[in-house]
Amino acid sequence: MATDKTCTCVEERAKAVTSQDSPSIDVDFMEKGALEANSATPFEFNFYDRGNWGIILHCWSSGFVSGGFSAFLMGVVAGYLNVNADIIRGLQNMSSLPNVFSILMGIVSDSRPIFGYRRRPYLVFGWIMSTTAYSVMAVMGLPEPYFCVGPDGDYLLDQEPCNPDADQYYVPLMICLFTANIGLLVSGSAGRGLMVEYARAEAEERRGRTQTVLSMVGLVGQFSSLLVAGFGFNGRLFNGTWDQRYQLGFRQYVSIFAVASLIAGLSCIRHVREGVGSDVSLRKYCWQAWSLFESKAVAAAGLYFFVRAILAKVFTTASFWVMMEWAGVKSLQMQLCSLLGVFASLLGSWLLQKYMLNVSWRKIMLVATVTCTAMDALPTFLTIFGIVRDQYFYLGESIVSAIPE
Prior knowledge:
globular; Growth Hormone, Chain: A; mainly alpha; single chain; 2 domains
């Protein structure tokens, strides 16, 4: 009796989400979820439905913006400004610090709707933050490079630096990157929450396919970013190999990310399909989350991700300069190998959603992690001990490390 009354109240309060291309589908993602959705007409994600274009552009832009971070560090921070390795590692850690608050942001998005919506306002607000941060970087520009530039466009590394204070310019860049990543955190948490709701509304035998497809969209965005970095931001001033006159400058490069963030934010204003939600008690929400975490399966998964995050972030500050100095890696080579890594991720995602939706995630992660770690250790140690120092041999890491992801 109580259950029937609860379902009736929920149905009266909820506003249904109807696909433009499938008017028979009547699913309220915010209130009922998959378990109470009409099993006769389960949700199917449609790329041609304008109501889904917002989340598609969000996923693509997330991959595009995050994919340019390595080129930014290698070309601008290490190459142009000649910042020390320990500071570069600190920049990487600071830029990823907002990810620590993903759970907190997810709780806020779940329990505190804005104008009646749990996802859309957070998506828009996050992308506005990223747009602002990249726009500020484009306006600021860069000082003169650390080293003097010769007639051929290469740095004169054997001479005294022309601008020895250039390596101090990383501070405003770090602030802007930190702000941009906070924006990615806000929009990303809301986007992942929306994808989970889509997955819950799918038929059981297809559950998780929408998430995988949208993850592949993000990888396509990352692939696009690597193409831009490899063939458009490969000037000699930024640790590249081509004439700087025919390559993007710093202002042009970061402006591309500002435009991509702006397009994603604007698309999320109207083209995100979600129902209307209401406030949820934070105390009740946290208590339910804790009750869920007490289950053996969820606790095991949480422990796995906790330990994996610790081990995955163990780095040495020398790794960046081992790659650049000992292995002789340039920007184009790094981006090309990263492109192969994205292809590996796309292939893995396709295989996962096609054949392995019901395969144990423990077996998948165990085999992928152990195999790829062993494959990565060989070129790394051979480079460190000076046995084989080749750019493409060393950069196999960017390919094999993408497979477990």
